Amino acid sequence: MTGIDLASEGGWPADRLDADYQPRGTISEARFAAEMASYRSTSEAMRAPFGRHFDLVYDRQSGQTLDLFGPEVLRDCPVFVFIHGGYWRALSKRDSAMMAGMLAGQGIATAVLDYQLAPGASLTEITRQVRAAVGFLWREGRGLGLDPQRIHVGGSSAGGHLAGAVLAGGWQAEAGLPEGVIASALPISGLFDLTPIAASAPQAWLSLSADDVAALSPIRNLPRRGAPITLAWAETDPAGFKRQSVAYAAAWAQAGFPARCLEVPGRNHFDILAELGDASTVLSRALIAQIGA
């Protein structure tokens, strides 16, 4: 699998590509501001009751850190690593812990991480940092009360791309990690082929070369061993995000790995993460079942 079939997509004018990859256009500015405020307030509310370790340096080279949440006692817990979105240039771990209490109630820890934002860091460097976070949890997890054999990863939008970059093959051996270091994944409204991204608005802060697109597109770098994944998106997501999720799921299944698609009704690109605050929602049930399996 070399990537999404972009024979027609690649010929679309830039304004069409931008429309298909610009989620801000799907809601009002007031609604967007409210959703961003909710990210921060719900995440901050998780810190006192469920925060276990804050500002753990996971990568000495960049100094980037993660926060760890979970049940009151962490003992061989599976961990869900959540990677925030923001088109690689916005948000932080302080906006990204909205699922921590829900998962703690299921005996699952949550790790939320910062990475250096574009354009201050290239997407190659951002990807290296996120992979370093997985390496940190695999090496140091036992001492933190985690089970390194049960590292699950997820992310939204640009974070969905970075979750795919962690799933990709070819980097684990050099990092001293087993190829099957990830037990399962939940990319939400992710981006898996960067070809249209390099031809639309985010190119202004990513400056992707053709080599970058090839190396950093998860759909072009499938692993030899793939974990179960659920590709989720919101009902009103822009068309490009839906196409990419469906294509990545198809590529994953074609390679012989377990893949499921899930469209979440009544949600947009931003408020879909509110689903993860409630264990009874369709998205939370899918995540809990996948981690349990």
The number of helical segments is 9
Mean pLDDT: 94
Largest sheet: 8 strands, mixed
- The radius of gyration over CA amounts to 17 Å
What percentage of the residues does DSSP assign to strands (E)? 15-25%
The backbone outline, from C-alpha atoms, is: globular
User: What is the first-to-last residue Cα distance?
Assistant: 27 Å
Annotation, overall tally of beta strands: 8
Instruction: Describe the strand arrangement of the main beta sheet, using strand numbers.
Output: 1-2-4-3-5-6-7-8
Structural class: alpha/beta
One letter per element, helices H and strands E, the order comes to HHEEEHEHEHEHHEHEH
Q: Quick summary of this structure?
A:
With 293 residues, this protein is α/β, with parallel strands linked by helices. The protein has helices spanning 14-20, 29-50, 100-104, 123-140, 158-167, 203-206, 210-216, 239-254, 282-292, and strands at 51-59, 64-69, 77-83, 109-113, 146-156, 182-188, 229-234, 259-264.
What does this structure look like?
With 293 residues, the protein is an alpha/beta fold. The protein has nine helices and eight strands. The protein has helices at 14-20, 29-50, 100-104, 123-140, 158-167, 203-206, 210-216, 239-254, 282-292; strands at residues 51-59, 64-69, 77-83, 109-113, 146-156, 182-188, 229-234, 259-264. An eight-stranded mixed beta sheet has the order 1-2-4-3-5-6-7-8, sandwiched between helices. The radius of gyration is 17 Å and the shape is globular. The two termini are 27 Å apart.
